[in-house]
Amino acid sequence: MELWGEIRRRVLTGEISQRAARDEYDIHWDTLQKILTYSEPPGYRLTKPRPSKLEPFLPIIHEILQSDRSVHRKQRHTGKRIFERLRDEHGYSGGITIVREAIRDWKAQSREVFLPLRHPPGEAQVDFGFADVWLDGTLTKVALFVMTLPYSDAIFIQAFPRECTEAFLEGHKRAFEFLGGVPQRISYDNSKIAVARLVGNRERKVTTEFLRLKSHFLFDDHFCLVRRPNEKGHVERLLDYARSNFLVPVPRIASLEALNQQLVQCCRNDLQRQLRGQTSPKQSLLAEEQREFLRPLPEQIFEACRLGQAHADSLSLVRFDTNSYSVPTKYAHRQITIVATIAEVRLLFEETLIARHQRDWGREQTRFNPIHYLSLLERKPGGFDHARPLEDWDLPVCLGILRRRLEAELQATGTREFIKVLRLLERHPLPTLKRAVEHALDIDATRASAIRLILEYQQESPLTLFSLEGRPHLKLVQVAQTDVSAYQSLLIGG
Predict the structure, then answer these.
(1) CATH number of the domain at 123-292, please?
(2) CA 156, CA 241: separation in Å to the nearest integer?
(3) Each residue's pLDDT tens digit, 255-264
(4) DSSP 443
(5) In this structure, are residues 132 and 140 in contact, taking their beta carbons and an 8 Å threshold?
(6) Which of 366, 238, 359, 214 is nearest to 295 (CA)?
């Protein structure tokens, strides 16, 4: 390269002639012309392409690679396997290296290229993902609800037992509260939670629950094309970021509530991060977005719940989401309305709340409330010791003493009388009944009617004397003493 530059400099500046340069440096005339034409050696150039042994086989390679797209990735052709097939089935006599280069070139040309999208302020993206956590000592897969604001790069993430309507609605509610407002438009994929039916490329028939969510918070929706998640690539990218930064190492937590509190704090801390190309942290961008582009939260509270209908069976159980929940026996064989949230399941009959249970996220489980079956046991006291709803009922010791006394005193009707006492739990909490039973045992008043009177007495408010303290204007009032003898005049002439 040094000699090349020296020859060019001396000839082109007129220091020596081309003939002198050719003689001095002992180079061919064509070489000298090339030096004078190019500022640096141009390298070897083919005048015509070399013939390739692989070229006749390229259509076969492309056909194999194209067909592999519809096959499980673990059963696709490797470069070695394609080379073997070309050699054994098609008579290829070349090497494996150029086969691998041809495969690499085809894959590079076949990879999809995406268009960078503009993200106006006030728009959000939503997605679900999954992660593993140690929940109360058990490795459990949880669903991650994620909402992001691409303009400010803000992220909100929460963990739920699984991806379902209740988690979808509750996630939106918590996200809006965290972000301090409601985005004008939110992008989604085509999950069955929100989309009941596809209508063309962009039109969607949405679910009733999603309509209720939109009607309450007044945002517009945007659904991606089928199998085109790149239209909401921002939330896809931040979901991966949150999973690898917020949930590594795998968290060990006692409850999802504790995990969600940690995730909220992680989202707050992430707002202090400064994006590439920005001069202020994400918190400043979010504050700007809140002021000008996010709608204020509605004053009315939104209940993130799923509604359903089911019949209570002959065991007074209502099935919802593969699990069964008890209702009072008088509602057996009735149509029951189900209101399910993340935390609980409420059961209503004709708009009246008749039962409330903690939500069970297992499968084929049964949740009993023993109080629901007491009215039936009063008519069938023989099943008291064998009733499944009562087998894990942990009652205070005083109630066990009361039962033994009643059965000793009343013999055959003692169990029925004890059930009548337990039925007081339909109107009074267990701690209150416990105090009343302890008092009844002390005074030897063990019948259900006596314990009911004790309960009513204990709940009466005691009488208090009227005090003039703090009421100086009442101290000035003088009331004369009543002359009782004046009433005697009413009897005269009577």
Answers:
(1) 3.30.420.10
(2) 12
(3) 999 999 999 9
(4) H
(5) yes
(6) 214
- What distance in Å separates the CA atoms of residue 359 and residue 104, rounded to the nearest whole number? 53
Claim: this prediction has a pTM higher than 0.70: yes
Q: Compute the residue count for the chain.
A: 494
Element spanning 86, H or E: helix 79-90
Instruction: Please write the tens of the pLDDT for every residue from 170-198.
Output: 999 999 999 999 999 999 988 899 998 88
427 CB-side CA count, 13 A: 8
Nearest to 103 by CA among 146, 137, 150, 54: 54
Q: Which residues of the chain have pLDDT under 50?
A: 494
How far apart (Å, rounded) are the C-alpha atoms in residues 209 and 308? 11
Residue 125: strand pairing partners:
148, 187
The residues spanned by each domain of the chain are 2-37, 55-110, 123-292, 306-367, 374-459
- Burial bucket for residue 4 (CB in 10 Å: 0-12, 13-18, 19+): middle
Angle, CA of 53, 55 and 57, to the nearest 5°:
95
Residue of 409, 390, 392, 393 lying closest to 401 (CA atoms): 409
Q: How far is CA 380 from CA 41, 408, 412, 415, 424, in A?
A: 105, 19, 12, 10, 18
pLDDT of residue 312: 94
